[in-house]
Amino acid sequence: MAALMRCARFCVTTGQIPKLLRVVSTGSSQTSVNLPFQHPSAAIQRSWLSTLAEGVEAEEPAPSTSTPKVEALMITVERYMRQFGRVSRKQLDPIVSTFDKEGTISLSSSLSLLRLHGTALFDEPPASRLKLAQALWEKYKKYDIPLEVGHYNALLGVYNQNKMDYSPTEFLADMEANGVTPNRVTYQRLIARFCNMGDIQGATQVLEHMKKAALPINDQVFNSFITGHLRSNDPESAQSIVEVMRQTGLEPTNTTYMTLAIGFAERGEIEEVKKYINQAEIENVPLRPGQLLEVYAALAMNGHNQYLKEIMTYLQNGTPYNQDAIRICNQLIAVGCDDAAYQLFLEMPKPTRIEAEQATLGRFFLRALARHQRPVEKVVEFVKDMQAREVNKDNISAVAQLAYLENQPAYALSFMEKMKAEGLPVRAHFFWPALCQFKEAKNKEGIYDTLEKMNRLADSRDDFNQTLHTYAIPGLAATGESEADILSKVQNYGFQEKEANFAYFLYLLDTNKLEKAIDFLKDHEVNVAMAAVRACLMSYMRRDVDWKPMFQLLAQLKSKSTVWRGTALETTAMVLKRALMLQRKDGWADANEIFAFLEANDMRILRRNQQELAEYFSGAPDDVLQKLNGLVSSDTAGDTDRGLAGPMSFDLSLEELKALVRQNPNNKGAQKRLLLKACGVGDVEEAEKVKSTLEAEGFVFPPQVLGQLAYMYAMFVKDVEKAQHFIQELETTFPEHKNYQAAVLKLAALQVSQGQTDAAVDALKRYADRHKDIVEKQSIPKPQYFSDIVSAAADADAAKKLMDTLFECGYVPRDSIPVLDSYMDKLVDSGDSDRILAEFEEFVKTQRRSPKVDKVLQFFINKEDPDRLQKVVDVLTELYGLMNVFHHLIADFIECGHIKKARKIMETPGLRANMQRLNYYCQSFIERNMIKELEALAEVTKEMFGIDRDNMLFHLIRGYVNQKDFERAKDVLVQYEEEMLAPSARTLRFLARNLETAGLPVSFEVPDYQPPVQMEEKGPATKRKETPKSTVSQAAATAAFSQAGQLKDSIEKGEVEKVLADLQGSEKGALAAAVTQLKRPWPIEALESIFESLAKQGDLDTLKELSMNRLPVFLRNSLKANIFAAAVNSGRTEEVLDDIETVKTNTGKYFTFSSLDTLHSKTPELMDRVESIGKNLISEKNYTEPLSVLWCYYKYRNSPRAEELMNEIPGLDKSVLVGALCDVAVEEKKADVLESLLKMKKDLDEKQGTAFVYSSLLQLHVNQGDADALEKTCESIVKDGIARASIRKSSVKAAENLLTEKNKPLPAWAEESSDSDSSSSSDEEKESKR
Prior knowledge:
Layout: H1 2-6, H2 45-55, H3 69-84, H4 89-102, H5 107-115, H6 126-142, H7 149-161, H8 168-177, H9 184-196, H10 200-212, H11 219-231, H12 235-247, H13 254-267, H14 270-282, H15 289-301, H16 308-312, H17 322-334, H18 338-347, H19 363-371, H20 376-389, H21 397-405, H22 409-421, H23 432-440, H24 444-457, H25 464-478, H26 483-489, H27 497-510, H28 514-523, H29 530-537, H30 547-559, H31 567-585, H32 591-600, H33 607-616, H34 622-629, H35 654-663, H36 668-681, H37 684-696, H38 703-717, H39 720-733, H40 741-753, H41 757-770, H42 772-777, H43 784-791, H44 796-809, H45 817-830, H46 833-847, H47 853-862, H48 866-880, H49 882-895, H50 899-906, H51 915-927, H52 931-940, H53 949-962, H54 966-978, H55 985-997, H56 1034-1052, H57 1056-1061, H58 1065-1077, H59 1084-1096, H60 1100-1107, H61 1113-1130, H62 1133-1143, H63 1153-1162, H64 1167-1181, H65 1185-1196, H66 1201-1208, H67 1212-1215, H68 1219-1227, H69 1231-1243, H70 1247-1264, H71 1267-1279, H72 1289-1301, H73 1324-1329
């Protein structure tokens, strides 16, 4: 005690807290492992255990071939640990095993792996965890893994968490002997060890040493002394520690009071326990549910079960605690406290309504019982009690399943005995997982025992043969059992000789022993099942296997079969097709011999097989086709029914259209299409030239051209009068034409920006009155068309008028976020508090939207207006729930400088981290250089339940690096150690890369980049994934063709979404498929309209259905983009990402700026997965397009991740396609993006790319009318030696026109050099191809 008082000046002060983070327990957020099925009822018993049996060997993810497997496994488990705060034994065992085989592991992975053997390993008892940790430590020494102070500190932490009895003196001596110097974390943990032993004197000596070394002391040290005094039977001194803390400038935390409560719980003094729980509540630092449950566990583990209910009373305040309860239940079961664990399970909050037939609560509890093989009778008692209470419908068969999941086959089989005794069904496939697991363990006796139990307990012999050849025989062979022993012994378990022989024959086929299988058939009688043979032969069809043994095998099987038809004939056709494919390569050399063999053995095929083969080999010699026809079986017939997609037109690029016009100068159709394209992409010079040519020849412009001209003059030329002229001409000449909404919207935005608000309102109303059906369709794909109109307003009143016009006319729904955000921006800028509150409340209540929520909250915080702030919080709570609103308030209070108020919110019981929101605020603070706010956010959320601390500290490092404060960035690594966390590989690579860039030394090991781990199934033979077939019936497809013609008319009327909405899912898929197969020509816009409508509705299933049909390449790419957009809109993004990772073909076509933007706003955590896909494709296929699109998106959003990717992926800058990014930057006036791209292209010395970006930059300055900036850019072009012909003609012409208009000198353009790689036709399309 005295030592603590003397060290007051070394204690942590408030200002030091960010640098001295406390070690806290990480709460668990995982409910339970999802099981394939939860109850083996009659309809699904066959599938749940067979699925498990097939997958039981596929639990280890397969690492990338370019990285050690142990590192790949560590990436997976570290990600899991950061997400859930705990790991299981099954996750760590494969890592340790792999490390033992490879004999190497990186420094960071070795540290992380050791730390995971503490309380994070929640499903093992302390003794088991210690044994595993010590074995791992010995392996580190065996393989000469460098052991630093962090390793020794991690080992100390594991020892302390598992209550190991070790000597601190010997531990320090071991460190000294190995040349490792202790640090403050070492001494803190040694103090904890002495205190856990009740050795206050030893702890005081360490404390004195810390004092001499001027090491700071934090609340962990005080908490340790509380434990020490209680364990030395000195409760009075323990209680006085609280006052000592206050005297030294530290306030007791809820961890302090939890330590006191646990200490008295161990002593069984329940009144003292309750006293400190209540005291924490009084001092406004209440114990969190997880901490209360630690007290519960301390009572249970020390035999004080009579007081457990009293602790549970503190948890009945509505605060959720189920995740912590799951963790504590597992820990209690691990040490044999089953009854206390079950009592806790029963107290856990349950759903208000539980249907008895659907009740599935408590499976985590049953799984823990199975994992630790608790007494069978006790488990049966728990199961029946759960059923009686109607909280879980599972019977004891579920425990057998869970035992299999825990790799406890013998325990599972003991429950099969119970199932039979209680009259529950027992099927053959229930035993498959046991056979797989005994095979893995090479346990021959276990396999025979399983066969014995299956023969004795199974209700029927269904699947006995499959069990034998798929599981039992391969398992016995793996143990070294001979063929003769297998065939003789399995007959003791109910198998006939012919059954055993056929099963062994199939095993030989499955293991690629074809010749041996043929020899086996000669000497053994078998019962033939051709379906099983066909399945085994499938793997041979993918290899160049000699045709003779394959047909010899079939001939032998035919001779041993009493019936040879159906599947047998199809199998013959399958083998024949493969044989003829090889013959085609060899010039049909052995074709006659093949047909002669088939005729000699009377081997036939079906009529439909013959037709398919004749079509496939249509170029074969006539005699081959004739002989093929002669193989048709006399009692079979077949037919074919193929629908072929009709011809499709395709869209041409601007340069292709120019070439087409040059080749056909009198082709008015080509000229019209060229004019449309030039207007659409903003090539004003080309458009004016074509327009003049057509006008001179008396060409009457169709309505589409007039609309595009109006769009061009509004969007690119910024000429109100000309845009109005062409719209008026269109409306007068073609009053029935409707599709010129984009031109009207761009004209309205231009008018508003020039102060003509009333004129813009009139234009919007006039179009809406004329074409109400088009407006109500709301099909314009770019929401910014509307938000731009409102954003251009001069004040809130004008913005309100424009917004109301858009709503009233039906252009956008009243809950349109872009429009509401634009209006709220103007409204908050007005400073009218009453109006801001009133309209914000109205939006939330009526539209269920909260536009610019953070800006509104910060407005009232800065105004110090608590009443209105509370009203905003109240209305937001109804919309999002209090927990989500708290995240907004935490960040907004911090940004406004009210740190204490933010910290106060953190004390809310049950508050759980929402990493999506926290990541957003971290990124926002970094981008705005608000480093103090970022520090405060990282500190305030430190003990938040479910927080990903690595992610938060990574953001903190990024913030320091962004400000070039590398010393503080390195200091964050000390925080990792104090919190007993391992920095992720991403964090270390990022910090090391920036230190090297700054010319500073890197003092830690930097792990290499590891691609994400992919799961692979193990098995005797790898099966190729079959292409999915369309689920649309022929009848539905036939009916759809009759509707497809109507759909074209509906597209022209703007009613696509209405037509699709009226159809059911299968009808919709059939109709969409039929559209692609019509013989009549369809415009690209029409088909894409269907795709976009389905994507907007989030109809992923129909789009996937459509992708199974034949489509031209350009439509397939459009379809891919809409599939991903539909997935994002429907919340099924991960499903499509799974498909993308599997297929890995043209992956970049799935991602667009729009879909990535939506994904980033809805589920930003999935952006990392998109990035991982891109990185994998670069490493595996050198395919850069996906990562290129993602990089362009990050650049478009000015995200620092763009620069990070460039640093992480060598050569990415050379492969990035920036065409689309340049166009978006021009449209959205992002000059900074173009300047950055320009620098990148210059650094790479890419003349053509540099010229392309310069073209876009010129166009941007012209659009803004900024002659000064334009002049400077022209000077830079001349200085860089970029020839005039290399710049887009439209950009050059527009630039020269503006300079002339502003009386600026024209640039002295450079002439084209002989070695230039540029061309006069460089545009967006050409740049993308480049």
